[in-house]
Design brief:
The chain is α/β, with parallel strands linked by helices. It is 34% helix and 25% strand. It contains 8 helices and 9 strands. A 5-stranded parallel sheet has the order 5-9-8-6-7.
Length: 194
């Protein structure tokens, strides 16, 4: 599996809200499927430019996915596609954080592994269901409770969709933790497996 950076650039069509909503929905679905691992705007690029990190087995597979993006279908955005060498969402600006899909985590548990899982969701979200054995540490409590987490070894983080858990990984990485793994799609993707 390889990673590909897709630079989305303004094209001739004006950006209508309906295209933006369709684009966001499309990327959200690909994220749940583990085919998109990150997206964001280019901090130093021209206004309207964005970057999406795709995951696929070949350039052709990823290009086929991009061609189905409503932005591209309706001519709202043009794109450039490049091979990407790292495994982190580009908008974080940090390396050293791995990412797996909920399906990959499920498979590891089914194979008898007992991974350390940290659930950073809010209390009301956890009340709706958790992965058995997961440790609940809200993202807002992480700074005060991080000593409860082993500083090394593989640790999996999840939230509802993958963004808050990535923030948790970023903070821990900056404080010397290693072995950080973000679960792409979070509990939303996990629930779809059941």
């Amino acid at each position: 599996m390889a990673y590909y950076a897709v630079w989305m650039k303004p094209a001739n069509q004006e950006l209508a809200p309906v295209y933006l909503e369709a684009h966001i929905e499309y990327l959200s679905q690909l994220r749940l499927e583990g085919k998109v691992s990150g997206n964001g705007r280019l901090l130093n690029g021209p206004a309207g430019n964005g970057l999406v990190i795709y995951r696929g087995s070949s350039l052709e597979e990823v290009q086929a996915l991009i061609e189905k993006d409503p932005f591209v279908v309706h001519g709202v955005r043009a794109y450039e596609l490049h091979h990407w060498d790292v495994r982190w969402a580009p908008h974080t600006g940090l390396g050293g954080i791995r990412e797996i899909t909920a399906a990959q985590l499920w498979e590891r548990i089914e194979n008898g592994e007992k991974p350390t899982i940290i659930d950073v969701r809010e209390d009301h979200e956890v009340a709706e269901g958790v992965i058995p054995g997961a440790i609940h540490i809200r993202l807002g409590d992480l700074e005060h409770r991080h000593t409860e987490i082993q500083p090394a070894g593989e640790i999996f983080f999840l939230c509802r969709g993958g963004r808050r858990s990535l923030k948790a990984c970023e903070w821990l990485l900056s404080n010397g933790y290693t072995g950080l793994v973000n679960v792409a799609g979070g509990m939303t993707a996990w629930k779809e497996l059941r």
